[in-house]
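name: query_chain
kind: protein
chains: 1
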Amino acid sequence: MHTVVERELELKLVLSPERGIPVPARLTYRTDDPYAVHITFHIGSANAVDWTFARELLIEGLFRPCGTGDVRIWPTKIDGRGVLCVTLSSPDGDALLEAPCAAVFAWAEQTLRIVPPGTEAGRLRIDEGLAALLAPAPVDDLWLRDPWPSDDFPDDGEV
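structure:
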């Protein structure tokens, strides 16, 4: 059975230093995808925008600037409150979002209690899946036998 940890929260899309718009979002963590976090942005349309990136990136970003690619995260203080800044880059454009640090931290802490760091691989059950995939099946015995024993070649090397 898989566990899902979700948190609805309101982010702020920063348009300029003086202006931002609220963006409802949902943070999701699933134990069947233990290395990833998912953020769904509800932008007032029928089609939500989904981003998926490493849980480790989010956790580290709560404490120090991190990320070098499409997702960069860092903590800061704005007007005396803790804020988590997230920049997302895609071919369609870039976005700077601010999230309440305390809410993201509490949600991340829940995910870490359910799947502690370093135990993610055990949740994937890769070894069991590979063993099942590579296990010989009864029909394999048929394929391993010589299907045409009468086609044996002489031992003297003549063809």
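note: Strands lie at 4-16, 19-30, 36-41, 49-54, 71-78, 81-90, 93-100.
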